[in-house]
Amino acid sequence: MNDTFRPAVLRPVHYVILALLALATFLPGFTTIPPFDRDESRFAQATRQMLETRDFVSIRFQDEARNKKPVGIHWLQSATVTAVQAVTGEHDPETTPIWAYRLPSLIGAVAAVLLTAWAGQLLFGATAGFGAALLMSVCVLLSVEARMAKTDAVLLATVVAAMGALGRIYLDRRKPMPPTWGLTLTFWIALGVGILIKGPVILLPVLGSIITLGFADRDWSWLKSLRPLPGLAIVLAMVLPWAILIAIATKGQFFADAIGHEFLGKVNSGQEKHAGPPGYYLITFWLSFWPGSLLVGLGAAWAWRRRHDDAVRFCLAWIVPTWLIFEAVATKLPHYVLPTFPALALLGMAALLSRIDAKAAAEKAANRNVPREERVRPPLAGRIGRWAVVILYLIITAALAVLGAGAPLRLEGTNLPAGFVAGGLALATGIAFVVLERIGCLKRLTLGVAAGGALSMISILGLVMPSLKAMWLSPTIAQAVADHRLCPTTTLAAAGYTEPSLVFLAGTKTKLGEPDMVANHLADDPGCALALVRDKEEPAFAAQLAARGLSPELVKHFRGFNYSRGNWANLALYRAGAPQNAPAATEPAPQPPAADQPAQATPQP
């Protein structure tokens, strides 16, 4: 078979192919999609305020301490924003576009793809590593995360680096020679960076796999190969300096909030209404890892049968504890299980290669005239399971196609050509993937999933999503504020629409609150201030403003879909109008001439 598609070892050309495919998939829409996730806007705004204040220790969203995640992602975003400003010559953080804050996520996503290939080669061989990385480069969830200024794509890169090194050390545990310092340093440095990015989350796959393997094998001696004493010293040297500074700056409140509220609070209750039942990730995975979810579903039985194989055992230990913990936690979001996707991709690809080899062996047996009754045939349960997986996968594919084609009609009231293209590509890719997997030609399958998956993500996220103007309320409002700015110091206050993206786009000083706060904002600065009010809040806002002797003057009306809330919103932009009940202006009464001035002559006809 062609060396490109079934290599014995990964060469630089393979990594170049994967990097180009990942960039081709991730870049469309990268600069044109406005801030579309609440956390993205919060992260970007906190980084902007770091650059504005030059305080790179404390994390704040406006005047509120953001004691949720460590500082690592903000340092990376600050570096990329500063680099973009140096290139463009524009040094005002208020005008730096959102894509400058997304660059660490893009880099992290591409790195995660390349590291999946590296880790896969260490565990299963070059072909499985290359194929798994290809699946990662076109999957739905990573394509979305690469376009958002958040922690998850960068965290994924650190997880894959740490787990790849840990897996190789585990597989080599019986060899007399200790692992290289390169592997050991990769593990500990990745662990330290991961903690700085998202706190203890990286410990779930790392400690989960170590504990699972330790109990399953009844052998803990291999952990000495990690060189724990110098390794822990490296991690502490990376993490402790900032940890001490933030503890001093917040008097310990950061850790009380980050661990007690943010981390442990998600266990008991669904924060920000992001709750879900156990099994949530088992359902959402079919879409979030599409199109590769087909191979994972078909390979599940193979992985269980091979669970005593070291590489498969390690991947199962990587996946199962982390997955079960997140299924048990009350707060659920699709990206929480993203750190397990590389291991799932590796198992799915390894199972596919095993099926292809088994099919080739069966064809050889047929050519040798081996009696039919002596040929290996899948059991009935296996055939039923396969058809169940295929049918479920095709249903998910059809749903994705309908979403791509139907979103413009639902939100814009019209059929966009890009929507039909996106829906058609997704449907064709899903069907072709099923057919090519059945045929068992690795070359065609690789080319098909790469081309179809990439084009589907490009069309949905690069063409359809930016064109859904009804979704982008915050950019529309921010543009209207800029167009109707009354003074250089004009500030917006909003009631009923409190999206963090509005703060990022309209400026750090934007106020979010209740109708009385917005009324006070207009009354305190009637000549310059602007107010944004949702229709449900207008009666209270008008009453509060009337109590202050003012009336609202409409500037512009907005209607759009607030996707964070899942409903349509009617909003109005106001400025302060004339005082209520003010006397009408009258002409001044004529005054008699002064004694030393002659009276003006009355005009004669």
Automatic annotation (TrEMBL):
<dbReference type="GO" id="GO:0005886">
    <property type="term" value="C:plasma membrane"/>
</dbReference>
<feature type="transmembrane region" description="Helical">
    <location>
        <begin position="416"/>
        <end position="436"/>
    </location>
</feature>
<dbReference type="InterPro" id="IPR003342">
    <property type="entry name" value="ArnT-like_N"/>
</dbReference>
<feature type="transmembrane region" description="Helical">
    <location>
        <begin position="12"/>
        <end position="33"/>
    </location>
</feature>
<dbReference type="GO" id="GO:0016763">
    <property type="term" value="F:pentosyltransferase activity"/>
</dbReference>
<feature type="transmembrane region" description="Helical">
    <location>
        <begin position="228"/>
        <end position="249"/>
    </location>
</feature>
<protein>
    <submittedName>
        <fullName>4-amino-4-deoxy-L-arabinose transferase-like glycosyltransferase</fullName>
    </submittedName>
</protein>
<keyword id="KW-0472">Membrane</keyword>
<dbReference type="Pfam" id="PF02366">
    <property type="entry name" value="PMT"/>
</dbReference>
<dbReference type="GO" id="GO:0010041">
    <property type="term" value="P:response to iron(III) ion"/>
</dbReference>
<keyword id="KW-0812">Transmembrane</keyword>
<feature type="transmembrane region" description="Helical">
    <location>
        <begin position="183"/>
        <end position="216"/>
    </location>
</feature>
<dbReference type="GO" id="GO:0000030">
    <property type="term" value="F:mannosyltransferase activity"/>
</dbReference>
<keyword id="KW-0808">Transferase</keyword>
<keyword id="KW-1133">Transmembrane helix</keyword>
<feature type="compositionally biased region" description="Low complexity">
    <location>
        <begin position="579"/>
        <end position="588"/>
    </location>
</feature>
<feature type="transmembrane region" description="Helical">
    <location>
        <begin position="280"/>
        <end position="304"/>
    </location>
</feature>
<feature type="transmembrane region" description="Helical">
    <location>
        <begin position="445"/>
        <end position="465"/>
    </location>
</feature>
<dbReference type="GO" id="GO:0009103">
    <property type="term" value="P:lipopolysaccharide biosynthetic process"/>
</dbReference>
<dbReference type="InterPro" id="IPR050297">
    <property type="entry name" value="LipidA_mod_glycosyltrf_83"/>
</dbReference>
<feature type="region of interest" description="Disordered">
    <location>
        <begin position="579"/>
        <end position="605"/>
    </location>
</feature>
<keyword id="KW-0328">Glycosyltransferase</keyword>
<feature type="transmembrane region" description="Helical">
    <location>
        <begin position="153"/>
        <end position="171"/>
    </location>
</feature>
<feature type="transmembrane region" description="Helical">
    <location>
        <begin position="336"/>
        <end position="354"/>
    </location>
</feature>
<feature type="compositionally biased region" description="Low complexity">
    <location>
        <begin position="596"/>
        <end position="605"/>
    </location>
</feature>
<dbReference type="GO" id="GO:0006493">
    <property type="term" value="P:protein O-linked glycosylation"/>
</dbReference>
<keyword id="KW-1003">Cell membrane</keyword>
<feature type="transmembrane region" description="Helical">
    <location>
        <begin position="311"/>
        <end position="330"/>
    </location>
</feature>
<feature type="transmembrane region" description="Helical">
    <location>
        <begin position="124"/>
        <end position="144"/>
    </location>
</feature>
<feature type="domain" description="ArnT-like N-terminal">
    <location>
        <begin position="89"/>
        <end position="248"/>
    </location>
</feature>
<feature type="transmembrane region" description="Helical">
    <location>
        <begin position="384"/>
        <end position="404"/>
    </location>
</feature>
